[in-house]
């Protein structure tokens, strides 16, 4: 037996086919892994490290290790607690309204009408343009003297005096949330539209024959079948909105008097304007922990619902 | 054939459905497009018309002077901003696509230890706030001497393009049957050859969508652009628009022209992308 295999010496590859295949697979992953390592993993490590130091960019002489000092400062920072509160208003106000109007939009865009493809594309526009563009457009619409919103409301008799929407502590948050709603409706519209198109028509027809009205068909067929996509899109949107800083940063910079300051814009302000990297690091770590907790909870809830292809 | 009984509610529903749908569609379109339309009208107004009291809705003497001024202004050189964005986004797009095609293919085709964990990491990275990365990346680029370079912006863009595009590519590759590459490999193609000759052509639409997506999201990027550049000449469009606001009293005429100019390219690209993007989005991974 042994002599047989010896007499037909097949050159055995140095490394077996299986291992080689595995090595090829890993080598394909190297560029992506390097990208993430250099731009996400290492920076996060540094953010954690920064949060343990007194690290204000223009005070290099004060640079030193202070342990949890930045975190303790955070606990006693009333603005930080205010930003958490504001974040809740910002996130849930935005996502709730985006969802309601986005659902309505999806139901409308599902109807058959001429020019449907064009209308679908056009209504998606607010979602794809840069955040800074959205912010500037609405800043101009809200402008107290030359803004069209004040003008229309006064003409319609809804109010008698011009309102400085973005510099009023009472209206600023509502104004930025409204802008974010405008921007986010298309997101829910396309997600839910994709879900609606996957519902087989036979279900509706059968329900119709059985005498179910519009509302009951919506309630008993549409909603349950869309549940997975609703959970996925809402959760990702919540996370994204919590992290999203551009719009508020452009429109109000967190003002007036922190009325629109959310945790992510506060972190940004600390890093970008105050140049207090230590404190910004501590805020980032808190943001990260909140996000990871939420993501973990989300993955647990969606386990079994979401089946990636 | 079961004859459908006409129920009293049927007639009511049909009567209601037509007008409700139409009114809804008109409201939806007006709400989505109204602000753009207002910006477009603003950009065509001269200074006097822009700041007229009472508010003048339509430009009586439409003019392109705002566009010309924004494009050629030496203080806020919009043409320069535009080219900067074009370069940064194009390089980001090409590099991101190359990287994510390889990684997506590996994840879709090879069973290796840590595959699921890796996918999860790519998903989790999308959930990370980019404000988290600003301070450490700034320190990092400063140490490497990359402040005010295109590289700093391009590398930073990878932090949010790559995780998402890898997910998109995994989805596309998984939908392509394995048999084709396997028979190519039996015919003597190596792995890379099979990927290039068989899989890539089949995945072309998906790859195009991924590329455009990377371009569009980089086009919107603001925070990295304002943090890692200090020279006016290095500003991207988003950063440049913000810079225009910060310069002096806001020139809404020029600014609105800038807004329209920076919207057009993404709007055109998006029209191509739409169908594929929706597929990618509903496949499970979401950013933006």
What are the secondary-structure elements of chain B, in order, as H or E?
Answer: HHHHHHHHHHHH
The average pLDDT value of chain A, as a whole number, equals 86
Shape of chain A: flat
Helix content of chain B: over 70%
First-to-last CA distance of chain A: 48 Å
The CATH architecture term of chain A is Orthogonal Bundle
How many domains make up the coordinates of chain A? Answer: 1
With strands numbered from the N-terminus, the spatial order across the biggest sheet of chain A is: 1-2
- For the report, how would you describe the main beta sheet of chain B? none
Question: What does this entry look like structurally?
Answer:
The complex is a heterodimer of chains A (309) and B (288). Chain A is mainly α and 309 residues long. Chain A has a single domain (79-301), classed as Orthogonal Bundle (MetI-like fold), CATH 1.10.3720.10. Chain A contains 13 helices and 2 strands; from the N terminus they run ααββααααααααααα. Chain A has helices at 2-7, 17-50, 69-75, 78-110, 116-128, 131-142, 148-155, 172-197, 201-209, 214-243, 246-251, 263-272, 277-302, and strands at residues 53-54, 64-65. Chain A has a two-stranded antiparallel sheet with strand order 1-2. The longest helix of chain A has 34 residues, at 17-50. Residues 1-8 of chain A have low confidence and may be disordered. Chain B is an all-alpha fold. Chain B has helices spanning 8-43, 47-50, 65-72, 78-109, 115-127, 131-143, 150-174, 179-186, 191-220, 223-228, 237-247, 252-282. The radius of gyration of chain B is 25 Å and the shape is globular. Chain B starts with 7 loop residues before the first helix and ends in a 6-residue tail after the last helix. Classes of the chains: A mainly alpha (309), B mainly alpha (288). The interface between A and B is large, with 99 and 98 residues.
